[in-house]
Amino acid sequence: MFNREKVSNIYSKFVQSFENALNTVVYGEKPSTLSKLSELSLKGVANYIKECKPKNVIVMTGAGTSTSAGIPDFRSSTGVYSCLQEYNLPHPQAIFDISYFESHPEPFFRFAKTLFPKNVKPTPAHYFVKLLEKKGILKRWYTQNIDALEFLAGMPEEKVVTAHGSHLTSTCRSCGKKYDRKWMTEKIFDPNTLVPHCDTESCRGVVKPDIIFFGEALPRRFMTCSFEDFPKCDLLIIMGTSLVVQPFAALVHEVADDVPRLLINLEDVGGDSPAGASSTGLCYARKDNMRDVFWKGTCDEGVKALAELLDWELELQEMIAEGEVKFTTAPPNV
Ligand code: APR
């Protein structure tokens, strides 16, 4: 999935950050005046939004934005990968591995009831990103989630990149026939269906939701949009992800070196800090940090705290309340 240009781009950034680190060791701290943030905190990010008025904000999200909607994440202690013992998989991620699926589709479809619960609703974190779009400052929302809650929160399709696909549609593995979410949901919750098959008599192939399995290429739109968007990004907000899956996690590198990056997460990830599961280069724990902020907590609490600092809390509360009414009266038909 890496192309030569992208790899050399990441390598040159690595050399750059290594030289910066070396300079810091030899010549001392980088002057903090280079920072665009008045302070390396949520308040500093709020001040930046109010005073510098970024208009190409990019948001990157993972499963942590949907846990409060009742959808488990993957790698925390109660996540998907901790509760798959009954499926006798060679390893937990096999349930999303395309080569394993080809020969053993049953475990995925048995588990799909948990992965695709009915009547889920967007969370405050989803509505906060919708608020950014409503204010005309969201460039794009890159999500790893397949639950389509971004669209239930009212996001226009062109503003969202579903990097790992979504279960809005499904495709027959043999003839390519497309099926909608309603069809697949009925199959998944039908006690008499173990594996959904194509309803074309002459085909009867296995129908798989259009989510990206390990071993499958990411949607072309992921590449085309990220190449266009990230060089223009003037604020990166990362929420609810362990930043361990590539190439999504590497997007963190793709913004310019002085662009502020805010991580809202229950645990510190993606940084050079010892706890960081992988070093995607977030510098919030480094002495020479001048642009990264890590806000430790839930996505919902983090966006509410940021909305308060921006004087947006009433607007956010109204959107959440409207969503509550909308989805309590009529279940989502996405
Ligand atoms: N608020 C903030 N952070 C949270 C919350 C929450 N309510 N709930 C969980 N988290 C954090 C966890 O601590 C963890 O760091 O969100 C992160 C979720 O990480 P993962 O479970 O690894 O999920 P994600 O990063 O989305 O996984 C990426 O891996 O299995 C593949 O394709 C799958 O898209 C998925 C990809």
TrEMBL record:
Task: Enumerate the active-site residues.
Answer: H164 (proton acceptor)
Residue ranges constituting the Deacetylase sirtuin-type domain according to the UniProt record: 35-313
Q: Which reaction is catalysed here? A: N(6)-hexadecanoyl-L-lysyl-[protein] + NAD(+) + H2O = 2''-O-hexadecanoyl-ADP-D-ribose + nicotinamide + L-lysyl-[protein]; N(6)-tetradecanoyl-L-lysyl-[protein] + NAD(+) + H2O = 2''-O-tetradecanoyl-ADP-D-ribose + nicotinamide + L-lysyl-[protein]; N(6)-acetyl-L-lysyl-[protein] + NAD(+) + H2O = 2''-O-acetyl-ADP-D-ribose + nicotinamide + L-lysyl-[protein]
Q: Which Enzyme Commission number(s) are listed?
A: 2.3.1.286
Cellular component terms per the entry's GO annotation: nucleus
Q: Which residues bind Zn(2+)?
A: C172, C175, C198, C203
Record-stated family: Belongs to the sirtuin family. Class I subfamily.
Q: Which InterPro entries match?
A: DHS-like_NAD/FAD-binding_dom, NAD-dep_sirtuin_deacylases, Sirtuin, Sirtuin_cat_small_dom_sf, Sirtuin_class_I, Ssirtuin_cat_dom
Q: Give TM regions.
A: none
According to the record, cofactor stoichiometry and binding are noted as: Binds 1 zinc ion per subunit.
| Highest taxon, organism lineage | Eukaryota
User: Which is a Pfam family this sequence falls into?
Assistant: SIR2
Gene Ontology MF terms: histone deacetylase activity, NAD-dependent; NAD+ binding; zinc ion binding
**Which cofactor does this sequence's record say it needs?**
Zn(2+)
Q: Which UniProt keywords apply?
A: Metal-binding, NAD, Transferase, Zinc
Q: What protein am I looking at?
A: NAD-dependent protein deacetylase
Give binding positions for NAD(+): 63-67, 73-75, 144-147, 241-242, 265-267, 299
PANTHER family xref list:
NAD-DEPENDENT PROTEIN DEACETYLASE SIRTUIN-2, NAD-DEPENDENT PROTEIN DEACYLASE SIRTUIN-5, MITOCHONDRIAL-RELATED
